[in-house]
Amino acid sequence: MKNSILFIILSFSLLSCQHKGDSTKNSTIETIPVFSNYTAELPFSAFVDTIELIPLETTEDNLIGEITRVIFNNGKYYIRSTNGMQNPKLFVFNENGKYIQKISKQGVGPGEYLDFEDFTIANDDHIVLADYKQLLHFDTEGKFLYTSKSEFPRAEGDFALFEILPTKDHAYLGVPLFPQKHLLVKVNDDGSKLDFFFDPGEKEILKSQFLKTWRGLVPSDSCYFLIYSFCDTIYSISPDMQKIASAYYIDYAPKKLPDIPVDPKDDCLSWEKKLSHLDDYLKTSSIGAGDDFLYIGITDKAYKGYLSLYSKRSKKIMTAKKLVDDMYLKGNVITVTGKRIPHNMDGNDIIWEISPRILMKGYQRLSAADRETLQQKYPAWDQICSSLKEDDNPVLLRIKVKDF
User: Fold this and answer.
1) Interaxial angle between packed helices 202-210 and 268-276, expressed in degrees from 0 to 180 and rounded to the nearest 10
2) Interior CA angle at 203 toward 197 and 206, to 5°?
């Protein structure tokens, strides 16, 4: 299981599917033509209202590698970090980025985890870690409370959730790490009952295991949204999980991934070999949903990244591979890559972790006049960027998206 986790950096798109017992095709699905308005460079001012910087304090006890999940709750940032996508840790920082604590550790003792894939914060503010065959529960201060142990039926594989979200009825909606029949499961708080649903077919299930999205299951005010590896459709899931419908079709023309035959014996390596014969293709790496917009993180065959923003109101689409700061560190460029793609949100804000080097270079290249403007208009940016060091922990960008 752990060897396969190395593949979770990437995400992949494109193939239609069906919900067991209910058609996922309907006339209301919206098409998002992500490259109909492509530009190599997109200025911040095209979609940004404001950006707040949260530099994560660096100590010997909290060195951060890859950030897979960020949750902001009650004035604290909870961050799952890994090294090389392994050895997960859960760190807590306050709203200004000051380090507070680490929650739990790897081990086999009470409250310790083997290799937790994701975590969430339940409606009662309890912190829940999705570990192998169990859910670990902690209070708001990180004190261990109890363990919910669950066993998947043999037909569903081993119990491990790759993504987990709380539901309104004190349960959890999750994406199994290695599904064999269903792509979603609802788990009771005590782990005593598991309800499996969304069967897109044997071939789709197999493809979903080859590579994982950064973030494919996200909440909104009215529903949950789901996309899985090698799927070109974003599905909406009703709050009671009784209805799944196609909500958005992602049109990757002219680089849509073709329908490639799947053999039951295929694995990650054989699938990569099949893809290697293609000139290029695009796949979904992450999604996020605000009240008025969606974002889609995209990668191509060479793992170059693209960020696509879609307005639910105006139907406007903006896609770019480079974001140019024309508001704060004027002229600074953030290149989207397979690893540097937004995959976390807090409400309507995109939370994006950035290496200190990117901000440092942008700050150092400012002209005297632009630096003076920064000091006057955005003193917090000036103070933070002028004090960063290359080996510091990442800086969180809290991006408030404006109506576009």
Assistant:
1) 90
2) 80
d(CA 292, CA 49): 14
The domain spans of the chain are: 3-401
| Beta-sheet strand order (sheet of 86-94) | 66-73, 76-83, 86-94, 99-103
Provide the pLDDT for residue 323. 98
Q: Rg for the chain (alpha carbons), in Å?
A: 21
CA–CA dist 144, 289 (Å, integer): 32
Name 190's Cβ contacts closer than 8 Å, sequence gap at least 6.
148
pLDDT given at position 154: 63
Nearest residue to 401 (alpha-carbon basis) of 337, 360, 349: 349
Could you identify the residue written with the tokens 């639910």? 312
Q: How far apart are alpha carbons 389 and 356 in whole angstroms?
A: 7
pLDDT in tens, 211-264: 999 999 999 999 999 999 999 999 999 999 999 999 999 999 999 999 999 999
Enter the pTM of the model. 0.91
Under CATH, which number does the domain 3-401 receive? 2.120.10.30
Work out the angle between the directed axes of helices 368-377 and 379-387 (0-180°, nearest 10).
Answer: 120
pLDDT in the model for residue 150: 81
Residues whose CB falls within 8 Å of the CB of residue 217, separated by 6 or more in sequence, listed in order: 163, 165, 173, 174, 175, 224, 225, 226
* Ranges in the chain, pLDDT < 50: 1-26
281 Cβ contact partners less than 8 Å away, ≥ 6 residues apart: 14, 252, 255, 256, 257, 258, 275, 300, 301
* Cα angle 197-67-170, degrees, rounded to a multiple of 5: 40
Residues 6+ apart with CB under 8 A from 398: 51, 52, 53, 54, 346, 349, 350, 351
Contact criterion met (CB below 8 Å) for 321 and 304: yes
Instruction: Return the pLDDT at 23.
Output: 36
